[in-house]
Design goal:
two-stranded antiparallel sheet, 2 domains, about 140 residues, 4-stranded mixed sheet, Ribosomal Protein S5, domain 2, alpha+beta, 6 strands
Length: about 140
């Protein structure tokens, strides 16, 4: 049992901003069903449902599920994503930085890129968890076909 399938599903991630969620499923022969997932944090809540879907359709094999999303531009050619910043987490980062710099004065200051990568500081305010959940399940079903 060796196979490959992929599918993508569009999702609205903000006012006038869209993304494509791409799901790839690769399977190689194995005696037992062994599932592994590499999916974005936005879709982590759907992992259990995706696991059930795969268990329903597959009996054995080493199966790798990968998902990624890529932001698309709006109809007018530019992205207008609504971004929300969690001010409490931002303040906590600033306080942590100050405490570190008190102990280690030569420590570098946080850069904007560091702040943007910190989990939960920047959130997409218009994209609900159930949107990601539905999108990854639909793309997963299509990839299994």
């Amino acid at each position: 049992m060796t196979g490959y399938g992929s599918a993508s599903h569009p999702i609205t991630i903000g006012q006038g901003s869209f993304a494509n969620l791409q799901v790839e499923i690769r399977a190689v022969n194995s005696r037992f069903l062994d599932l592994s997932f590499r999916i974005p944090d936005e879709c982590k809540s759907a992992e259990g449902a995706l696991r059930e879907l795969l268990n329903k359709h597959l009996k054995r094999g080493k199966v790798e599920v990968r998902a990624a999303w890529r932001q698309s531009s709006s109809e007018h050619g530019h992205s207008q994503s609504a971004i929300a910043i969690d001010l409490a987490k931002l303040r906590a980062l600033k306080d942590a930085q100050n405490a570190i710099r008190e102990q280690f004065p030569s420590a570098e200051e946080l850069r904007i890129a560091d702040i943007l990568r910190y989990p939960g500081v920047v959130a997409d305010s218009d994209t609900a968890e159930d949107q990601w959940h539905g999108a990854i399940l639909k793309a997963g079903e299509e990839a299994l076909q």
